[in-house]
Amino acid sequence: MLKGRKVYLREYRKEDIVLAHEYINDYEVKRMLVPGIPFPLRLEEEEKWYDSQSSSKDTYSFAIAKIEDNEYIGGCGINEVDWKNSVVTLGIFIAKKFWNEGYGTDAMRILLRFVFEQMNINRAKLNVYSFNRRAIRSYQKCGFRIEGTLRQEIFRDGSFHDEIIMGILKDEFGRNDQTSL
């Protein structure tokens, strides 16, 4: 178990599937995560994803749970590993009812600590849509920097939006009180 100030990261459990399905199908959550049409997933697709986790070699998925009551609130993980170049691509989602509580920032800090201290990775990156200001601020609190912009990469809610590429290096993580645990 990887522990932060507000949340801890743990393995996904079968009992998380129904809530994960509910959380990920919330339109506000979905529109922040997927480049395609934010169409709902079937429960069977969530179950299939859960079953595939044990066979994944270069992806690592964690459930996010609140320390105070062990409630499952979302997920995060390493979606891609480039071992040769020591780079990972990260992802995270928090259920809408837990937004603006600092849970996502805490979870990302824990995930970064795992990436840099346990996997010995040099660089972590992620992509975020320009309209997801809350996530951008959260990533910046963790030490991520904006590295590039894919202009008008995504069509959402009737207009085109940029996709922001953000990254953080191992030697940048934990340099100040904002990014360390």
TrEMBL record:
* Stored SUPFAM superfamilies: Acyl-CoA N-acyltransferases (Nat) (SSF55729)
User: Domain of life here?
Assistant: Bacteria
Where's the N-acetyltransferase domain? 7-171
Q: Which Pfam families match?
A: Acetyltransf_3
**What is any one of the record's Gene Ontology cellular component terms?**
ribosome
Q: What is this protein called?
A: Acetyltransferase, ribosomal protein N-acetylase
Q: Which UniProt keywords apply?
A: Ribonucleoprotein, Ribosomal protein, Transferase
Listed GO molecular functions?
Answer: acyltransferase activity, transferring groups other than amino-acyl groups
What InterPro entries does the annotation carry? Acyl_CoA_acyltransferase, GNAT_dom
